[in-house]
Specification:
two-stranded antiparallel sheet, flat, 2 strands, 146 residues
């Protein structure tokens, strides 16, 4: 059946597991919530370190000409998956951190600030800049002048 968490007066039937976790971690800043948040941030650090290692190995394989091997494809596969996990994880961390129903404000730790910073860099690097730069009438005018 479902568990009642009092979140906006709704009864959840297990379909909203992530919302339940965010609610519990957001409300429960002491004890279990703080410990779970610590382990969650540690997990994200491990994911980011593994991603960095795989990215370095992938660059090395591309430079040595072994880009089309099975190992390179496997490394690329896991690198992309780890990046996805990191983006989803930090997005959940942002939702927990800025949960509007929290009565006690959370103080960001160094690790959280660092993860937010790295997340911002990843998002800026992965944005499709051609959408903004390529179709801007102002930039087309500047290019024609130059």
């Amino acid at each position: 059946m479902g568990a009642y968490f009092g979140f906006m007066g709704d009864i959840y039937r297990g379909d909203y597991f992530i919302l339940e976790v965010i609610y519990i971690m957001g409300k429960n800043i002491d004890g279990l919530g703080r410990r779970a948040l610590f382990y969650f941030v540690a997990f994200l650090f491990i994911v980011k370190i593994l991603f960095a290692i795989l990215a370095i190995v992938h660059i090395y394989l591309k430079r040595t000409g072994k880009k089309d091997t099975q190992i390179s494809e496997t490394i690329l596969f896991w690198k992309e998956r780890l990046e996805f996990i990191f983006i989803i994880g930090v997005s959940l961390l942002l939702m927990i951190f800025f949960f509007p129903g929290r009565k006690i404000q959370m103080e960001p730790t160094f690790e959280m600030r660092f993860l937010f910073f790295v997340y911002g860099i990843i998002i800026l690097v992965n944005v499709d800049w051609k959408i903004v730069i390529g179709e801007s009438p102002f930039l087309k005018t500047v290019q024609m002048v130059i």
